[in-house]
């Protein structure tokens, strides 16, 4: 596939994107950043509205991407993590509550926690997530456990230990489940990152197909997500992958944890369940973000594991 052919698909994507989904910087600024190492904040909100609204954040994952070294770090922060809510100044809150004040507020909370800079955000609700998976043709996700998953449409999806093909509704149920998996919220965070890795594998495995599907994705998901990455920057990333990608992407994941307790929060009148930070894990996570951005090759030994059995 020649690069000139890829440009044709990019033009089709831009021309078909009538809706304003990008906020903030210009397309040229977004394009320049997209081929440099960047950190994308993935925010999942717990609503099924046809239009995205501010709500508590169910998913909070920083994705550090280095296109030059082809290393990706997925960093999960539990929804109950006890940290400063920028909307309340120095007041402590649960991370999940920060999203109720806007995705930019959650991004800033994570920037403060890890002393990093979030370059982009992508916020999506349940409806948008399901549509994303379905338009892509479904994904294959690894599970450590075997169990029956109850799906929104009333069906039962049997998850096997190993690889599982999932449609959008099944993937959402799997990503939200903390009762059938070991370690509760930590296990759910692990599986959410596995879902994202499955999407990355599908996109990088056939970037031309993703580029072709981009207009359909934007049309089908319209209103259910928002991002400050321009459509042209998304296209450029895919074209860069097509024109120069010779080796596989190295995708690693890590999660911070802590210990549970009950405390006051900025967003609630009464004390509620929280997860107190483990400062050593937070420091290690911050170091991993820096290593990824600086071009280090991520290995299992460098990344390490938060839960031994992972």
What does this structure look like?
There is one protein chain. The chain is α+β, with helices and mostly antiparallel strands. The chain has one domain (3-303): Aminopeptidase (3-Layer(aba) Sandwich), CATH 3.40.630.190. It is 41% helix and 26% strand. The protein has 11 helices and 14 strands. It is globular and about 50 Å long.
List keywords for this structure.
14 strands, alpha+beta, Aminopeptidase, 11 helices, 26% strand, 310 residues, two-stranded antiparallel ribbon
How many beta strands in the DSSP annotation?
Answer: 14
Mean residue pLDDT? 85
Number of helices: 11
From the N-terminal CA to the C-terminal CA, the straight-line distance is 39 Å
CATH class: Alpha Beta
Strand order, largest beta sheet: 11-6-1-2-3-12
Order of helices and strands: HHEEEEEHHEHEEEEHHHEHEEEHH
Q: Which word captures the global form?
A: globular
Helicity, as a percent range? 40-55%
CATH superfamily: LCP protein
What is the CATH topology? Answer: Aminopeptidase
Characterize the biggest β-sheet. 6 strands, mixed
Q: Rg, please?
A: 19 Å
Structural class: alpha+beta
CATH architecture name: 3-Layer(aba) Sandwich
Give the amount of beta strand, in percent.
Answer: 25-35%
Total number of distinct structural domains? 1
